[in-house]
Amino acid sequence: AVVCGYTGGTVEHPSYERVCTGETGHAEVVRVSFDPAVLPVQVLLDAYFTLHDPTTLDRQGNDVGTQYRSAMFYADDEQRVMFLEARERASQWWVNPIVTTVQPLTVFYPAEEYHQDYYAKNPGSGYCQVVVSGKVAKIRARFRDYLEQPA
């Protein structure tokens, strides 16, 4: 399960509008719950470093600001070590240095409902067609062995 949200900042219960100002300190993030017996954590972390550009500071595509930084937030020391190892592994795939931060998770605030499952709800939107569809295709190609097959 994936929940979109915000973390890493100082403002309690931030809204999307406030996060977009860049003044809350929060990043736009996703919280992922999964069964490691079905999907190995290393595969999930490799997908993270495949899905976005971890070499650009405070930017993803045309989206610019600290809320778009590449960051991983860990809940415990085991996660911290896994995240650092994944970042090191991914550094071999990118020409430029990875700028992804690895920092402790303090509080996760779920984003507004209209942000949840955005691609599934809005596949025809311009943003989804131009930005998201290519990322989905990349994940489907590289990680197809881990994806559920349609019935």
What is the strand and helix layout of this fold?
Blueprint: E1 2-7, H1 16-20, E2 27-32, H2 41-51, E3 59-60, E4 63-64, E5 71-74, H3 77-90, E6 101-104, E7 109-110, H4 118-121, H5 126-142
Parallel strand pairs: 5-6
Antiparallel strand pairs: 1-2, 1-7, 3-4
Helix pairs in contact: 2-3
Question: What does the model show?
Answer:
The chain is of the alpha+beta class and 151 residues long. The protein has one domain (2-116): Peptide Methionine Sulfoxide Reductase, Chain A (2-Layer Sandwich). It contains 5 helices and 7 strands; from the N terminus they run βαβαβββαββαα. It has helices spanning 16-20, 41-51, 77-90, 118-121, 126-142, and strands at residues 2-7, 27-32, 59-60, 63-64, 71-74, 101-104, 109-110. It has a 3-stranded antiparallel β-sheet with strand order 2-1-7, with no helix packed on it. It has a two-stranded antiparallel ribbon with strand order 3-4. Helix 2 packs across helix 3 (77-90). The two termini are 20 Å apart. The mean pLDDT is 92.
Please describe the structure with a list of short key phrases separated by commas or semicolons:
151 residues; alpha+beta; Peptide Methionine Sulfoxide Reductase, Chain A; 3-stranded antiparallel β-sheet; two-stranded antiparallel ribbon; 5 helices; 17% strand
